[in-house]
Amino acid sequence: MSCQINNGDQVDGRVQYDRPLRTWDRLADGTWVYDWYMDTPTVATDGYSPGIPHCDSGSLPALASGCVDWPSSKFLQTPLTSAANGGTGSVVADPHYGTDYHVNCNTTDRMNQYYAVDLGRRAGDPVLSPGGAGTVKYAGWAPSEWETCGQHIIVDHGGGWWSVVCHLSAVHVKAGQPITNNTIGAAGATGTSEAHLHFSLTKNASITTAGGVYGGQSARPRHLYHLGCGGGYYDWISQGMQVCY
Q1: Which residues contact 33 (CB under 8 A, 6 or more apart)?
Q2: Mean pLDDT throughout 37-57?
Q3: Torsion-angle region of 29 (φ positive above 0: left; ψ -120 to 50: alpha; else: beta)
Q4: What is the pTM of this model?
């Protein structure tokens, strides 16, 4: 554990000193773990455990100009299950912030993918909707000019927030379908040369009648929750990071 912060979300109703316990511990790999589940000294009245460094509030890299943060109050999860990569339940993240196809924060006529993340997956791995519950806006093959997305799914999570997953080998949902936390498709290599999952988050984007996403703003993942590796959430995904289901 590298540091601790006591202004995180309250997740399970537990209290300390008659106040909600909102203390989270940051691990060396960037994972955030709810302190109740960690073997650390009990937090004091200030919400911190004695002897544990306080996290620097500026530890998260500056937000790219024109992009937005996915709100920490809105549920977000790693889009994989324990079946990922032959049952390891984890993947290696390969983000290309600001390069390759991962560009644009708020252009008006194309996809804004600056904070899109690639996750190394085996073809056929089940895929969850990163934003959790919502309504499917589009599910199927990408139209002309969006071909590199292959088979993809767009989910509307309310309030102008959408998630997009690309390169699927199979699609298990259809437009207009409400979803909760169910599997929406399977990872693949459609539209690309190597199996992986490309997922992005947007705010106030638009969609063509044929299923192409454009406009709006690229959203940076925040509080990306996971169950594996001890549970917790990732507030920043860096190159080569292990990401758990």
Answers
A1: 1, 24, 25, 27, 230, 231, 232
A2: 84
A3: alpha
A4: 0.80
